[in-house]
Amino acid sequence: MSGTDRFDPDGVKCVVWDLDGTLWDEIAVESVTDDLPTPRPAALAAIDALAARGVLSSIASRSAPSVLDRLDAVPQVRARFLAPQVSWQDKSESLRRIAKDLGIAVDALVLVDDSPYERAEVEALLPGVRTLAPEDVPALLAAFEGREVTAESRERVRRYRTEETRKAEGERFEGSREEFLRWCDMRLTVGAATADEIPRALELAARTHRLNSSGLTPDRLRELASSDGHELYTARMTDRFGEYGIIGAALVDRTHHGDGGTPATWSVPLLALSCRVAGRGAAAAFLFRLMERARRAGAEEFRVTLRPTDANLEMRILLRQAGLRRTDATATTGTTSTPTATAADSAVLGRTLQGDLPGSPGWLHVSDREDAEA
Length: 374
Hints:
The chain is of the alpha/beta class and 374 residues long. It has helices spanning 41-52, 66-72, 75-78, 91-102, 116-125, 137-144, 151-172, 177-183, 198-207, 218-225, 282-296, 313-321, 369-373; strands at 14-17, 56-62, 85-87, 109-112, 130-132, 186-192, 230-239, 242-257, 263-273, 301-306, 325-326, 347-352, 364-368. 40% of the residues are buried.
C-alpha cells in the first residue's frame, strides 16, 4: 500500500526508516572511516514530530550489521529508534521482526524508503503496510496535524524504551516467566474515568485492535460515555520499572434494571486495552475486576459486545476463558436502543454473576482506584 491517499493516522503506531538515501545521503558501509553519514535534519525533525504525537520510529536497513554498532556510538541519534533491524535480510522480514519486538501488528507500520524495489518487496509480501518515499514524509506529518495529542501519546516513546529495559531484565532473570512477573511487582488500579482520562480512552478505542472487543468508534464512545446510565472505566498499571499509564478502557451500560431498581445487567459495548500489556494478565484482570464491581452493584448478569475480527483473537479467547457465551441479546447501545455502528456483525456474550468468578493472575496486584486514593 503506497502513497498517502486515504491516510489514517490512527492506524500508524511506528514509522520504519531506511538508512542509506533516506535517513542520510551517503552509503554507510562505503565510508572510509567509522564515522556515520550525517543524518538529514528534515528526517530527524520528522522523527521528533512523530514522537511528540506518540508515533514510534524504528530502522530497517539492508546493510552490514556493523552499521548498527556504529549507530550505537551516536546516542543522540540512536535513542530515536526502537527495535532497529540492520542486516542483509529482506525488508519485509525486518518489518515482521520489528512488529514482533514492539508487540504491535505489522499493519501498524509505515516504511519510509528511497528504493522503489524495497517498497515494492514490502508491498508484495506485507500488503497491509503502507510504504512512502522520503518526499512523502511531509504529507505523512500533515495527516497528524490538528489531532488531539494526549499525555499518554507524548509519553509513549519513553514507555517503549522502558519496555526494552523490562525485556532485557527478563532475559537476564534466573527463574520462570511467572517468577519474573511476580518480581516486577505489577499493580493494576481500576476506577471511573476522570475528565482528563477521556481523551486517552478515545485513543484506545481508535488505536487498539488486538485487545478490542467491538471497534466502537471514538465519536460514538464519547457520545455514550456522556449519556445517562453509562459510565467509562479506565485501568492504570505500574511496576518496578515505572508507569504504564492508562492501559485499558471499558464503557459500561447500566440501563438494564431489574425488579428492585438496581441494574440487573452490566453491558460492556467496548473493552479495549493497549497491546503493550499483552501477555501480562492485565486484560484478564481488568475484565474480572469489572465483573466484581458489577456484582457488588447488584447486577446479576455481565455482557460484552464482541465484533470478531482477524486482529482480536486474543480478546475472543479471553472472553471465552472468562465464561462469557453468546446470548440472544441484540448488540445495542443502551437506552437509545440504537444499534452500534458494528451491530450487524457483532454478537453479545454474557454470563451470570452468581457463584465463583474467575480470579486475576497471582502475580498482578489489582485494586479499585477509589480504595487506593482513600
